Every structure is written in C-alpha cells, then in structure tokens.
Amino acid sequence: VFQGIGSLFRKEEPLPSLLKELFSESDIYLTANARTGIKYALKAFKLKKGANVGVQPYTCSSVLAAIRAADLTPFYVDINAGLTLSCEDLANKIAHIDALIVTHTFGFPAEIDKIKKIASHLPIIEDCAHALFSHYQHRPLGTFFDASVFSFGNGKFPSLGGGGMFCVVADLPFDS
Length: 176
Description:
By secondary structure, the chain is α/β, with parallel strands linked by helices. Helices cover 28% and strands 20% of the residues. The chain has helices at residues 2-9, 17-22, 34-44, 61-69, 87-93, 112-119; strands at residues 27-31, 52-55, 73-76, 99-103, 124-127, 135-136, 139-140, 147-151, 164-168. The strands form two sheets. It has a seven-stranded mixed beta sheet with strand order 1-9-8-5-4-2-3. Strand 4, helix 6 and strand 5 form a beta-alpha-beta unit. The longest helix is centred in the first third of the chain and has 11 residues, at 34-44. The radius of gyration is 16 Å and the shape is globular.
C-alpha cells in the first residue's frame, strides 16, 4: 500500500517489482477484481455474441457473471478428482467451445500440458484467483495461456481486501 501511494508522488507505476519479475513476458493491469479481468480478456478475443466459453462447473459465480457480462455463454466441462478441468471431458466437448477458462482450483495446477494438446487452437484464460505464487514445472501459473487473472479479495491469497490483476500473455488487442 505504501509503495503504491509513494509511487504516485514519484510519478512511477504502482506495480510491485515482484509481479513484474514473475510475469515478465506479460503486460500487467491492476483491476477492480478478477471478474473484470476475465471480461476484458473475453472481449479482447472478439468472439461472436453468445459464443461458448468452456468453464468448469465448480467455479466462483463471478466467473460466470464475467462470461455473461461479455455477452457469451458458459459451457460446462466437468472436473476431475483434483477439482480442476477434466481433460477427458474437454476432449469430448472441444468442438462446441470457442474459448476456455482454466481454473487452478485452490492453487492446484490444472493439467496444462494435456489442455494445450487438446485446446491449442482456442483462446484460453487462466483463472489464478487462488494461485498467485503457485507453479507448474518450475514456472508461475498465469504464464501458460493467452491471458490470466488473479484476485486479491477476501478469502484469496494474498487477501488484500479487494482488487485483482489481469495479465495479457499473448498479443491480444487490449487497450489499457
């Protein structure tokens, strides 16, 4: 908080250097919440109105609200025993999906390598609301797909009382 306030007086970006290090290949935007970041990413994908966004049913209601706010349709893909996206169900439903949200539930990484093989042709958002500082194959979650979102609200890690972060990993047509 003090670093952010101090940066205003020094006319610097209020983004901690740690985040810049973790997501060095991404453009980082602070948002009101993760839901806003999901909506921005979905809009940047320029999907047709009503397009199907693959999402697991075990997710926060704000993810579903973001999909609807982008004028898109949630399309449910089952979860596995680890509470993350079932790659088997994804493979069965892939023909009906226009974009995908991969949730790293409770910070446990989804099966990223398998998802990449199945859905490499789709725009993909990583929902890292519980996964800041979690890794997959020695790389931070939030760096594997086109965009990622993080939440700093109550019950999240770190719980800062509110706010979120949106990282653009790919060259999305996103205007800050």
